[in-house]
Amino acid sequence: MMIPSLGLAAAIDYPSTRKADVTEELHGTKVPDPYRWLEDDNAAETKSWVAAQNEVTQSFLKTVPHRDEIRKRLADLWNFERTGAPQEYGGKWFFTHNTGLQNQSVLKVSDTLDGEGRLLLDPNTLSADGTVALAHFTPSEDGKLLGYSISRGGSDWNEILVRDVATGKDTGDHLQWVKFSGISWAKDGSGFFYSRYDAPPEGAALTQKNEFQKLCFHKIGTPQSEDQLIYERKDQPKWGFGGGVTEDGKFLVIHVSEGTDPKNRLFYRPVDGDKVIELLADADAEYDFIGNYDSVFYFRTDLDAPRRRVIAIDVTKPERSAWKEIIPQSKDLLQEASMVGGKLVVEYLKDAKSAVTVYDPTGTKVRDVDLPGIGSAAGFHGREKDKQTFYTFTGFTDPGAIYRYDLDSGTSTLWNRPKVGFDGSSYETKQVFATSKDGTKVPLFIVHKKGLTLDGSHRTLLTGYGGFNISITPAFSVGRAVWLERGGVLAVANLRGGGEYGSEWHLAGTRLKKQNVFDDFIAAAEWLVNEKYTSSKKLAIQGGSNGGLLVGACMTQRPDLYGAALPAVGVMDMLRFHKFTIGWGWEPDYGSAENPEEFKALLRYSPYHALKPGTRYPATMVTTADHDDRVVPAHSFKFAARLQECQAKDGPPVLIRIDTSAGHGAGTALSKMIDKTADEWSFLEAVL
């Protein structure tokens, strides 16, 4: 029942896209940019182009025989009750909950840990189409007030509101132009610290550069215009600030970042003082504040330890010679560390799989945590007084569960397991290692039905990320479960540029070494073909955001290697990404077109610029969204327009799917997620 891609391609009448005579000279090189006009998302011509492209894409997808069947199965499988890990404040338990197909999970509060709880906040009532999401929430220490932030239409911009927990009514506090910010309450509940930007000009909220972030304190019951400015740096437009009050209420810890660079600064201020002290001002390493015992601050750091260690600094004696190493670097990556119940709980990654160890505050090992199997563990948060903590555990074919962990006995007890209509026991997961161009061993998880015959006949989905020190670990996905049910093979590559093996692994895939990431992904694809899991005609590649760049770069470098490509919300124009919203913050990973040497490297792999006329590219469906203000949709618009221009006349379809009232991904309404996934799998089944 497959539809031949050639027949489909011949039937597609792509919208005409105007080419403008735009050329920019950079470092002596003339760079054409004929589709720059698509960067103006407010222009009538751009809106008309978007509508025309969506019409063509939907017309194509309507011809796929199994589309309705795929969407129904996705909706059926997603229709399961799920609960988030509980958090205790003031003797009350707060947790998220979804009955199944709610577009957004609701927030509940209960007087007991195992109580059903009462509804405290339902984001689904804030919009007709479920596109207002609960982005973040933090109750006050006494559990009487809830600070929460909402996102509209998928934008990174948040609004912060406050709700009275007892009455379920909002207090009237309303803060705007908040982005990349948490909520940290003062110990007495009088207000909270948060980060904001100045209001952008009218019409520029989704595109203007985000610079000069400010750390502020909002006092409950007062207008935002009266908020106290805690810290800003008018000499440092790219510095971002995150403020958190220590558990003992004595200090405000200020995390100072510059874009996505893992190296950061760490300042603090006594809560009852007004002087900010620059404790770690050199940005010479990554310093993640874990917690404190009075003046002794604990940090997770990669200083002199690419796989990280835990150190302690007495802020009354801040000289480096007085620092103490608490937990030394090991052969595995120290991924996370938390202080709870008088213990240090440390999460490690062993070849991208979780392992957890408990230490006392001196660094003496207490025990290893017995995890349910091979997969990903997360959580272990809490306070000094707690006797228990909670963690989640999941795998590629395991929808996961929430466990209660007794800190004294070391026993894990199942707290909540969702009932999902997917039989994970019918599938197997294995980890193999492909060899990259320079000999580097690249981990690759492969998931498929048991008893798979290696004859090269299976539709295979290869995905990866490879950037920003982010580790890709085993996790359950309803969408991928349906892919597996329909006979597909899933392959997940752990590429350089990610964080799976520490800072050295990350740096080996950044700036002038970014090509290593693409080489790693290409090696994984070749391994799957050579080992006869699939063939090039049956192999699809998928990635989002930085992973969208990955797909765009690999399909332009090796168009012969894949049958299909799904680049989502990708960074496709590597010469102009820094000119929009927070794009400048990615320069630590990508480099900058302003630098002559880095410009040459960026131009070589920039997907938009690497396309060549008359080349037979794989069947491609680019996906983006109109409210993506992280990777602005212009990247995808320009790439798709150029790809349609360059695709060989007898080549397979190249389409773009542009969602509305959606953004980069977080907070997307479930109905939109189901629609998008159904369209992606339908497209792949049609063209592979």
Automatic annotation (TrEMBL):
Ranges where the Peptidase S9A N-terminal domain occurs: 15-416
Instruction: Name the coiled-coil region(s).
Output: none
Q: Looking at the record's lineage, which domain of life comes first?
A: Bacteria
Report if keyword Hydrolase is assigned: yes
Catalyses: Hydrolysis of Pro-|-Xaa >> Ala-|-Xaa in oligopeptides
Keyword list (alphabetical) reads: Hydrolase, Protease, Serine protease
Report the top EC class in one word.
hydrolase
Q: Which residues form the Peptidase S9 prolyl oligopeptidase catalytic domain?
A: 475-687
> What Gene3D superfamilies is this protein classified in?
alpha/beta hydrolase, Prolyl oligopeptidase, N-terminal domain
Question: Which E.C. number(s) belong to this protein?
Answer: 3.4.21.26
Instruction: Write down the PANTHER family for this protein, in alphabetical order.
Output: PROLYL ENDOPEPTIDASE
Family named by the database record: Belongs to the peptidase S9A family.
Protein name in UniProt: prolyl oligopeptidase
